[in-house]
Design goal:
The protein is 32% helix and 17% strand. It has 766 residues and is an alpha/beta fold. It folds into four domains: 173 residues, no CATH class; 211 residues, Alpha-Beta Barrel (TIM Barrel); 213 residues, Rossmann fold (3-Layer(aba) Sandwich), CATH 3.40.50; 116 residues, Immunoglobulin-like, CATH 2.60.40. The protein has a six-stranded mixed beta sheet with strand order 11-16-15-14-12-13, with helices on both faces. Strands 4-3-2-1-10 form a five-stranded parallel beta sheet. It starts with a helix and ends with a strand.
Length: 766
């Protein structure tokens, strides 16, 4: 295989570099625009439509079909098996130039093979390979697995977002993959929704900054061999479904869209993102995949988006078979294309039906040309016409290299949140010589999180392994509870309760199960939504029985959504929210437990007491809790947005506003003195919030408008400076015009979004 591909690569290069001068598209010295136009005029209608269709890889089809029933093989498309259409048909279409893209291609060998088929086509248009590289190229084995996006968000580290994206791009290109379906810049507003771990949390400002840096990290200049195409997704509103389930209807006012959900997408477009994926859901009665207002008016009209729009998994088909706004599949394709869709993920009927729609005169061929131009533009810019293959020898030098491993560990350290500590942490190894460890996530690769393939054991440090690494002289007594929270053995729970009594200290590692290779067994992740936020199965019973030993008990959470662990918060001395901390998450957790690392992370989402508190977001409107709950949990969260503890103490003081009055186009300079009054070095995440005291439309009680990660040595003080510019004061007025209104504004600076953690000053806009 390698020899064949090498030969083909030489042939492709000769063809591309030494082709006829008339073939402008094969001339690397020509402009991208000229190459696109030259190629476009040479293409048949069938070839054009093929560029707009994406298929799953043949190995994915083989793997799924091998385990599917006869009935599933006939009728099922959810696993990307196309009834009556085999992998041989896909190979033939690729050779004929009728497939423009693939996803779920997980090896360099398969990517190179499919590319070799494309090089047999009449015009030799290369394939663009897309993959869900959400936190590293983790969906493909033997790549660096970084912490999930929600863990990254809790670090408030925009530079780390860029760094992870840049390294992910390198590992992707080393595998001949060109396009990541990330960043997910949805604003997570419902903890029941299983995809919260893919996001950067509940705050539009934080989501925006992390999303922008991710786009820049992935794409670079979008012209090099280490650049990949970013895809901002899912446009829009899927993170606030009416019942908390993925893809269910969303009913959102234009005001909420423009204030909360649009800003990260608009910023992503302005940062240069060249692809965008629409959302599963309908928005205000119109499926996002056929929503002309979203794709044409807002995206291309207002924001001038120059890239291409791709559908999500079979969602164009769902316009017909789920949303029922199209009478048949052909009509669904028509509605989607005319609504602004450029590429279809995935299916066998697209090619034939779209060609028919053009020949019938319903879709102008000029509209098809628009989409194909956008797709070809990216292929030329990424250089895959000149280099359609990846070097199999080089891939191992890039993937899982020492630099990338170190970044994964650093990111995990920075994103783990210390929620509670009554003094038991950091652990004293001389005091706690025997520790009982138990829980479903204590010794499992589940720390990798959703969108991760199983990794070699030597490339993953579980929490139990991390503890043994950091405290080699401590006796760790492990009681295995299995990986499945829904099928815990009561006998193993009872065993842990007994053995806890003979330990000096106990650690319970609880949470959710997220690994997608056990799709139907997960409790968190895509299409794994919850009607409650409690710990699943016997986990609460395990925690309570272990704590009943009378020995100090620490809870470590490995999960993707906020969990209402109110009993633990009231009864245990320490809780750590690790999220899914990636392949070296176990080491990072252990380092924090033993004080090798001082925790610095702050919550990027609010943690409610229970599901009945939803929506428990920090930036709510003033009237939301005017009437408090009469019974049940209080009207305050279990842990607020921006909250997180440290092993040292920070003191805030001397908040100053350099300007007390400004014009509507003026700015305010803010400074605050932060002092580390403890005896450990640390990093404090200083947060600035603003409230418009009186306004023509209701405004949130506070909004995050800036933040800074501030390293402080023990006893050290620093003055932290912020600048409040007009864009941080603007909002949409009654006529939906963005304005800065005269009036009084409250500036709040401190350690979290809680009022008691904030210093306040006011200024006036004249």
């Amino acid at each position: 295989m390698k020899k064949i591909i090498a030969t083909m690569a030489i042939g492709a290069c000769l063809c591309s570099c030494g082709g006829s001068r008339e073939e402008v598209y094969k001339d690397p010295s020509a402009t991208v625009k000229d190459r696109v136009e030259d190629l476009l005029k040479r293409m048949t209608l069938e070839e054009k439509v093929g560029q707009m269709n994406q298929f799953v890889g043949v190995e994915h089809i083989k793997a799924n079909s091998a385990v599917m029933t006869e009935d599933e093989l006939r009728n099922n498309t959810a696993n990307a098996f196309y009834p009556g259409f085999t992998e041989k048909d896909i190979e033939k279409w690729t050779e004929e130039g009728l497939i423009g893209s693939f996803l779920h291609v997980l090896t360099i060998e398969e990517a190179n093979y499919l590319q070799s088929l494309a090089m047999k086509s009449r015009l030799q248009i290369p394939i663009i390979f897309g993959i869900d590289a959400i936190h590293g190229n983790a969906n493909a084995p033997d790549n660096t697995v970084y912490p999930t996006n929600i863990n990254l968000a809790c670090s408030f580290d925009t530079l780390m977002a860029y760094k992870i994206a840049r390294q992910t791009a390198r590992e992707m290109r080393a595998m001949n993959m060109h396009w990541t379906f990330n960043p997910n810049v949805e604003v997570a507003r419902d903890a029941r929704w299983g995809r919260g771990q893919e996001t950067y949390g509940e705050d539009p400002y934080l989501v925006t900054l992390l999303g922008v840096q991710s786009v820049k990290g992935y794409q670079g200049n979008l012209n090099g061999s280490e650049d990949v195409l970013a895809c901002i997704k899912h446009f829009v509103g899927g993170s606030e479904p009416i019942n908390g389930t993925n893809g269910s209807p969303t009913d959102l006012s234009e005001r909420t869209l423009r204030e909360v959900f649009f800003p990260p997408f608009e910023a992503g477009v302005k940062a240069g993102a060249m692809s965008l994926m629409t959302a599963h859901n309908e928005l205000n009665g119109i499926p996002c995949h056929s929503n002309e207002w979203l794709m044409q008016d807002v995206l291309r009209g207002e924001w001038k988006f120059p890239g291409f729009v791709v559908s999500d998994w079979m969602d164009i088909e769902h316009i017909h078979d789920l949303h029922a706004t199209a009478e048949n599949l052909k009509e669904a394709f028509y509605q989607s294309i005319m609504g602004g869709m450029d590429m279809h993920m995935h299916g066998i009927h697209w090619n034939e039906m779209v060609v028919e729609l053009v020949k019938e005169g319903r879709i102008p061929e000029a509209r098809i040309d628009e989409s194909v131009r956008r797709i070809l533009d990216i292929k030329f810019r990424l250089g895959i016409f000149e280099q359609p293959y990846a070097d199999e020898a080089r891939t191992t030098q890039v993937r899982l290299c020492d630099e990338h491993r170190a970044t994964a560990l650093e990111a995990a350290r920075n994103g783990i949140v210390l929620l509670k500590n009554d003094g038991v942490l950091p652990l004293d190894a001389s005091r706690y010589k025997k520790i009982m460890v138990t829980g479903i996530n204590a010794d499992d690769q589940n720390i990798l999180g959703d969108w991760s393939a199983p990794e070699k054991d030597e490339n993953v440090t579980t929490i139990l392994e991390g503890l043994k690494m950091i405290a080699p002289d401590t006796q760790f007594d492990f009681v295995d509870q299995g990986w499945d929270p829904r099928n815990m053995d009561p006998k193993k729970v009872a065993e842990a309760a007994v053995r806890a009594k003979s330990a000096d200290l106990n650690i319970v590692v609880a949470g959710e199960y997220m690994m997608r290779f056990r799709w139907n067994d997960r409790t968190d992740g895509e299409d794994t939504d919850r009607s409650d936020l409690d710990l699943v199965g016997l986990q609460n019973e395990l925690i309570e029985k272990v704590a009943a030993s009378g020995k100090p008990t620490i809870l470590i959470l490995v999960n993707g959504r906020p969990l209402g662990v109110h009993w633990a918060a009231e009864n245990l001395p320490a809780i750590i929210e690790a999220w899914a901390p990636g392949m070296y998450g176990g080491q990072a957790v252990a380092e924090i437990l033993y004080g090798k690392v001082n925790p610095s992370a702050k919550l990027a989402v609010t943690i409610p007491h229970s599901v009945g508190q939803l929506q428990m977001i920090y930036n709510h409107k003033p009237s939301q809790y005017f009437h408090p709950y009469a019974a049940g949990k209080p009207s305050k969260p279990l842990y607020p947005f921006g909250y997180g503890l440290s092993y040292t103490t920070y003191k805030y003081g001397d908040l100053k506003l350099m300007q007390k009055e400004i014009s509507t186009d003026g700015a305010v300079d803010v400074s605050v003195k932060v002092t580390n009054v403890g005896d450990r070095d640390g990093v404090e995440i200083v947060q600035l919030y603003i409230r418009d005291k009186f306004s023509s439309v209701t405004r949130p009680v506070k909004e995050l408008k800036d933040f800074a990660r501030v390293p402080l040595k023990a006893g050290e003080s620093k003055v932290v400076n912020f600048r409040i510019t007009p864009d941080k004061l603007a909002f949409y007025d009654k006529k939906m015009k963005k304005v800065v209104e005269p009036g009084e504004f409250i500036v709040m600076v401190g350690a979290s979004s809680s009022d008691e953690d904030l210093l306040t000053k006011t200024f006036t806009v004249r």
